[in-house]
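Note to self: keep these together.
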Amino acid sequence: MKLARILLVGLLGAGILLVPSGISGAAGSDEATWVGPLSTRGRYVVDARGDRFKLRSGNWHGASGTWNGSGDINDSANHHAGEKADQIPLGLDRARVDVIIDSFAELGLNSVRLPFSNQMIHDTTPLPDASVAANPELRGKTPLQVYDAVVDRLTARGIAVILNNHTNTSRWCCGLDGNERWNTAQSAGQWEDDWLFMARRYAANKRVVGADLYNEVRRTVLDDPNWGSGDNHDWQLASQRVADRIQLEANPDLLIIVEGINWTGIPLDGLPHGRPTLEPVRTLSHTLVQSGKLVYSAHFYGYTGPNHSGATGTGETHDPRYQDLSPAELRDMLYRQAFYVSAETGEHFTAPVWISEFGVGGREETNPVARAWFENFVDNLIQADADFAYWPLVGFHTNRTGNGWALAHWDAAGNRMGLYDGDDWRAPAWSRLIAATGRTGQIPAVTPWSMLTLDHGDFQQSKAVRALPDWNSGAYKAVCPDGQWLTGLSHTGNRGLCTGSLTAPAAFTTVRDESYVDNDWASGYTKAQCPPDHYLAGYSMTGAAFSAGLCARSQTPLGRNGRTVWFDRGDNRPAGDFGGDFAYGRYKGQCAPDEYVAGVAYTGRIGSSRTPDALLCRH
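Structure:
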């Protein structure tokens, strides 16, 4: 990124404070240089022209609730830090919406994460005039209508908006508050329907770019969330399901943003507990129907830790907080918990990583440990060239004191206290982060790698196949996204790996027997082989047994030179670890990147379970 203009606005200590106000790609004016919708190419977010769009974001909270959960909801004292938002973005009672957005532009932001609660979108009660006192044109509107107006103005100013389902009910997050999971205070079906409603509501606005599915999934009093167990606490399964519905039923243009699990276990010394974040993604990732839309996210605060809840007193353990880690330890922990997803390219899990929340106290934060953590964390964001979103952007102040975490504060008279007023120690680090050089310009297309799994039912990620009748009734079926072909299978565990970027197939053929076998490429084994000029796009299983293959007819002729890849007694994969370990702990067979799977061999003899044993790889 280039500094087009630099404004000198003050001094900090003995150093001159420089504020970046014209970062390449920054938004805030009525004209922006980027074109929506956004997509992904490997580890990068790109705009509609294929140019890198690094998410330099902040959180404008309020519409998800600020009430602490007890006491009179109309009393500001019962809201977090005394900041009462009335289910709309904070600060509209104190400053004009465009004045608030001006502050975002000054900070060098190009995007805003805009939290909402499910309760808010169903609330049809008009707001009191006092809630929007600085914006009289919003009087008489419901919370959702005000949210609409904020979305409209942000996007008109060139700022990308990411919709974030933060809470079920309108309460301050996050603890044991009834909002721990997407389905704690409501059904999973209601949650999915609400997402379809929101995705459709803004579908015509291509600067509404993302659906951040749920915030900080964590333990309730009694139960943990999980990643892959298949029950109603399975966040991986729930997020996969709602992502499919958003893409197929509402708005295929949106980025689908999945945050890792924020907390599991009881925070007591001696009991298992911790913050899984994105670690489970390594062995179980998402595959979207519409490829090139997946982003993973994670949150990091200095006062929390990989095994520390962030509590002081009750719920506090002797585990280190992130701010207790040395710079090297912090770097390694961030890589393990999040940054590996974007750093390790060419894997089934490779995707952009958006650190969608991080932050620290401002002027009143005197703890040198907290300050050092923020500096170190910013350094890690820069080194990783990571997408980010600061929490929070907007806060209140009285005579320049208050919550202090926000980057822009307003008092009751509408006077702003900003990051660059000259007395906020965070300003140099923020300027460094915004101005940091990173990958810019055109991002070339990359080879996709997509995991298939039949752990809990059908997983047909082809839009074309979903529109067809059931091609193998009674069996679990997995199908690659349109344009991708099957390149690998596991011997057990029913996992598959897809790759490629072909034109969508012309037709499909189900193969259950040896009708199309043209030579004995696996002697003594039953072979299910595709017809000529077809590639295997899907497979079906009955329990552990191979049942049938789904062959897609290529739009162009395919090569017929082939080889047999056996994997019944060990891994048989090409050098280079293409696509990564798509079936951890299982034997896997995989064709070379320039080959396609034309057939699967198995046996039903004694001691075998008809599991896949060999692939016919052709090129």
